[in-house]
Batch of 2 targets.
Target 1
Amino acid sequence: MALDKTIDPSRRSSRPLAKAGLQSERLLWPTKGPGVFEQEVENLEDALGLTTLEKAVAWAQTNSMWPDTFGLACCAIEMMSIVSSRYDIARFGMERFSSSPRQADLLIVSGRVVHKMAAPLRQVYDQMLEPKWVIAMGACASSGGMFNNYTVLQGVDKIVPVDIHVPGCPPRPEALMEGIVRLHEKVMAGVPPAYEIREVAS
Amino acid sequence: MGYEGVPGLVETREAFGETTLVVDPAWLLEACVHLRDEAGFNVLSDITPTDYLGWGERGVAGYIGTPSGRDINAPGSQGDSRRPTTKPKRFSVSYHLLKLDGDPRRVRVQVWLDDGQPVPSVVRIWPTADWHEREAWDMMGIPVEGHPNLSRILMEDDWEGHPLRKDYPLGGEPVRFSGEE
Amino acid sequence: MATVQRRPQVYSGTRIPEPIPSVLHAPEELRRSGDLLTVNFGPNHPSTHGVLRLVVDLNGEHVVGIGAVVGYLHTGFEKTMEHKTWWKCITYPARIDYVSFQYNELVFVLAVEKLLELEVPRKATWMRMALCELVRIHSHLVYLGTSALEIGAISMFWYCFRERELVLDLFELVAGARMHTRYFQTGGLAEDIPVGFYGEARRFCERMPKALDDYEAILDDNTIWRQRTVGIGLLSAADAIALGQSGPVLRASGVDWDLRKREPYLAYDQVEFEVPVYHGGDVYDRYRVRMEEMRESTRIVAQCIERLEEMQGEPWIADDRKVVLPPREELHTSMESLIHHFKIVTEGYRVPEGEVYVTVESPRGESGCYVVSDGGPKPWRVKFRAPSFVALEATATCMRDAAVADLVAIVGSLDGVMGEVDR
């Protein structure tokens, strides 16, 4: 492709991640090496040494990861717009937002989680079947955002283990999609879901 | 429009183009019925409780952004030589009324209360007051007498304390920076 | 009330439940018979209005009891804003009603300007009006997309969000952010209007009515849509006024009341637009009111663009250096500007003592902001009157004789945004 010509061949990795979204960074910055995320994912992939069967399972999981409708506040509106035709999340197989947590794989916590909502959030998370992943979308879900008061949970990772934090207030639909793509890459590399890694809140 | 006929009227204030009628809490129901039926204020727009604990302890002066306050050479405009006007009691509850008509008008009915002093419910007069009064109880701890369902609405049912009071702390956590121990 | 008496009431008498106006209680015999099923439409449910919880008593398919539980998104805006300076406060209101974000900023900024008695240049006034009408279109598009999705007209979601992306493109062009732009400042706008805006906005105004024609072609005379919405969720004019309703819910019940016409703010008395009023008081009429409002908003935006083009080169923010930051070029040369900049950014400007209550016509109804200032750099009390808060009180009245399927349609038509309800 024409795009390949601008990238320094010695720096070009043959791994899937390098061909996916993050390639755009190197179009603007041709001498850039692999980013920290890419490097770590590649190292993990080598270290974990997945079998072909596990890779096939991971491929199936990422290509049809159904999100749960957990829209809370402003980020929910941007989450709805990734379903819309311009940002089309159906190309990742994720357009089927499942209202029942039993049939969902991915919990995108979009919006500020307040004390009163913490219990329903944990209930929904517990009802999901494993393997399950959590994306904390937006500043409020990641860390409480601009609200540091008596009622907003300072980060949803206090009650559920989070795989990906997506910054922004609200994050652009493209930003959320980058978060989703990175999650897919993590899963393809063989990284276990957060509840197996994190000691907190699992 | 003259508001002299409002029962229990203590004071009328005009500021920023708005009229505030300060009413004795014991006469609140009669005043509201009078305003709804005689004066035609058929919509209750909002009920706002306010806590004035700590009002006036900080002086205000100097860099005030009003036409009068922008002259920094005027006497009394520097330093802490001006305090805001004192308030009669700790809590005020403001009822914002609207006359929905060809000739619309707004008025604010204000009552002043001590801590724990109840205010009668105006649910019978304007049914929309239901949730507003519940919020006043939940957030500020203003007991509403005669309310059919006075329970917490925004906070959990077993929450202790009334968050919007001035002696209730803001809460939250100290921010931890990455790289710190 | 002249408007009400001219048309027959949609039902006689009042249907507001007693003793609690916002809770419908099942009749005693039904409760004792044991035939009731209590279902919890919990805070997490597919209806995209956010975290509303409805506890519903069902007798077969019919709703005989309903009560709403809110507070699952109570963020403590009002308390947080008491601890921030007036300038930093402006970031917060946009997140209250996150679908019509510009309106909360507008109402707060108007309240502060009223206390300051600050005069805003006309360019800022007209641009505020244009952006607010664009946000009205955005809000109604989200309403239409999600309500139609819930009732079953699933493809409407994609059509509406396609146009919504155009509105958000305009916002991104002007302010750099799609939502929560924080473009309004006390005294005017944060920055000048960028060059490409007028052309893009004009193109949008030409495109929007055609899109609305498409939506009407899909839904207006659609048998299924009409069966699901006509005669559902009735609310008479008298009940609507007693319940404090405003906005499209009130206008669909036959009351001709729009703050833009009756108590004009910004420059609404200088633009031509109509206010749609329907008399059915049902879900269908609320849908019709919002569709027509989108058309009228497009008209207003087109008129604003024309006026704004004449004002190119004019100031976009007031000149008062005690409140407004000086232009950055001056900071290099003028000591006074540096001092003003420093004082405003660190300590904040002080707003004189007083209390005001300002209302605007947001897409959901009468949105108000009550501000009490003690003359200091931080607000003493800020309260936002949320139209959705009041609209949810009307749920019990609208839900009389409703079936489960109608519940979704009615809650959608009241168009509540939970961020606003819970603040």
Target 2
Amino acid sequence: MSAPVQSPRSFPADGNLRRRQLWNRVMLVLLVLGSLIVVAPLVLVLGAVVMKGIAAINLAFFLEPFRPLDEGGGGLAHAIVGTLLMNLLALLIGGVLGLAGGILLSEYPDHPINPTLRVISDLLNGLPALLKGLVVYAVVVIPTGQFSGYAGALALALIMVPIVLRATEGVLKLVPWSVREAGLALGLPRWRVILSLVLPAATSGVITGLMLGFARAAGEAAPLYFTAGGSQLLTFNLSQQVESLALSIYKYANEPSPLRQEQAWAASLVLTLLVLAASLLARWATRRWTS
Amino acid sequence: MTARPPEARISPLYRALGDRLFVGVVLALCLLIIGIVVLIGWQLAANGSRAFAAFGLLGFLGGTTWDPVANIFGAWPFILGTLITSVAALALAFFPALAVAIFAVEYAPRWLGNVLQYALELLASLPSVIYGLWGLLVLAPAVRGVQQAIVGWAFEREMDWLVQILGVPIGIGMTTAVIVLAVMVIPYAASLAKDSIALVPSTQREAAYGLGATKWEVIRNAVLPYARGGILAGVILGFTRALGETMAVVLVIGNNKNLPFTVFGSATTIPSAIVNEFGEAQGLQLSSLLALGFILFILSGAMNLLAAWIVKRMSVEGRL
Amino acid sequence: MDEQKTVLTPPTSGSSASPNGTPDSSPLKPRMETRGLSVYYGKKVGVGNVTLPIYANKITALIGPSGCGKTTFLRALNRMHDLTPIARVEGEALLDGKNIYAPGVDPVEVRRKIGMVFQKPNPFPTLTIYDNVVAGLKLLGVRRKDVLDEAVERSLAQAALWDEVKDRLRAPGMSLSGGQQQRLCIARALAVEPEVLLMDEPTSALDPISTQAIEDLMSDLKNHVTIAIVTHNMQQAARVSDFTAYFLLGELVEFGPTNQLFTNPKDPRTEAYITGRFG
């Protein structure tokens, strides 16, 4: 046993403390600056959309379909109708597919197909929306020889699928096991347990997923460019070419006419409000669900 | 209470058949999902094969001419443009994204952390066309002034080489596209990085504090290394987003398919080209566009898989 | 009752024996002492009004049932509560006579001088064994390889780990067993040459053999650093420590040489705990 040792220190007595604390403060400043850089676009972009959108929005925007500039320009009613119809149809298709995927991953976790499904869903999520439009173009538009709202809805459905799938799986997994147990103990077959007990328990979560998918797809323009094709006509017939809000923004952004640009800002405002509403509702629903 | 046990009231056939049917339907739908992704790759390849056959794989990938009149199509300018803009956007986005992620988890009080979370979610879900509209009508004019000043400065000092590289400053072009892309990528990378940093166990931070570390030293030496898998995955996924961005880019990049690209001048990317050239495209031109789509499919698919692999390999939980 | 047993006055030779029996002839002086130290979480009292010496080069054990405040007290000794916004510390904690809570004192420096080992081993998983040990030194600006090498060997030897790992210093820190990881953490803490080492239930997550190894190294270690150890295991306290402090419900009930506190406790509450009537 050696006596207590006071060896000469191997580091400077003050441990470079002042320099390190200085560096500590510098990093804090840099981190705040970096965060401001991130938040700035929120202010700049949202600010522009809100200011210019509010200035441009009027009743005609909602009620009137396209009219040429020399007839006053009209509104974007045709785009609004198109957006709603295509997205609702897409919700039906994409929602069912996403639901099925979520159910499989959550309720049948040992199924051999699950790892593949997960990878595919992630791939689909990361795939550019453009490609989803291209595939529908190749598979539907070319053979039928025309653009249509149905093709557009199909492309939008592909965009919704991974979102709905992920949300459904997540929320189904949160349903306590005791719910399933109770149903099985009553002698209910598994499919009844899932449809009548588990899914209803997760309703708000599933609806949230559907809402988020809807909002996401409503903002997409690229896939519709190759499928719905865009139109200047107000129509409820999806077998024809159909316009959407996002497509209109793209088209009007490039036009030199101030009126068209205003309409683009107004459409941006509407889409932004839709997205904002969906994400706030989703947050609120999640909070209610998990508390 | 009923006299008969519940199971006897439900015929086993009903139960078994119902279960079989249900699983069958669910499975069929899931197989459909898988089939769709396969279909995407297959259709793009099949429809693009004409172009690949006409120019050869390397010939198409490396070809620098895109001429509908002469019926010659080469993908290189678009591939190059895509890579340059995506890498540059990521380089711009990396530090702000990491900064806000660190700040939100390690420094901000809870309410501020939540606000930042909302902000990131909102930024990530804004439609691409809106970023494009803003980029074209608000950002580009602002940037043009700065660009012109810079080019003017280089011109006055007779730095011809610099003027060459900078190109013609019209506001829209490579630089503006990169800025818009960076703005769009930041929320993605930041969210993933933030989640990864929040998962670092507090015992790691305590170990570093216990050694006598400043707050930044704790972050740099204990938190970030632990979270590096998720952070890297966030970077790669941000890159993937940038690769596939269409509407925002096509509105601000100017769509010039002639090499060489200049810093301020117009350029092009694969997605923007597909939109731009689509109009009346037929035959070989159409096939070439779909071939471009296939290239994009491979690129983004590979990046996605890479990100997933990195999370598995580099995360502390993954390796243990 | 908020009176506590008085602190033992420095003994003359022979009257205070350390656990391994050799009579101690050097006068005891406290390396650290607290005066009226209290920790509050909001309005709740974590531990109140503790006045206690931690004698130099001795092992002081802090025992008591769960929730008694012993860990709260320990963490106040290296200002770890600074990291918790709702925690508030009052009173004084002196290191070599200077209050570590005095205004103007940098907690970063305090924590270099007063090291800590935690309940669950927490080596840095992305670093090698070598890099784990020198982590603290690198923060202090040490770069020279010879200095670092020497520190690694010294610290690992003090932590009774050198022989087991000296051939694989570049192996990942996580490749070690639980007991080895904890010794690695001890080495890491020792590398920056602290005056005091605080140990928060360091063996509670380990198997008996690893526990034994760590208890063994502690008796040598106290020649280099002063040790304060929180343990929920009374037998460990009796085996290992020179002095023991018994905490109950957030206050210090009794303090004294370990032998005496365990064989002849002065406070009935201490006796109740030691004889196993509760806790």
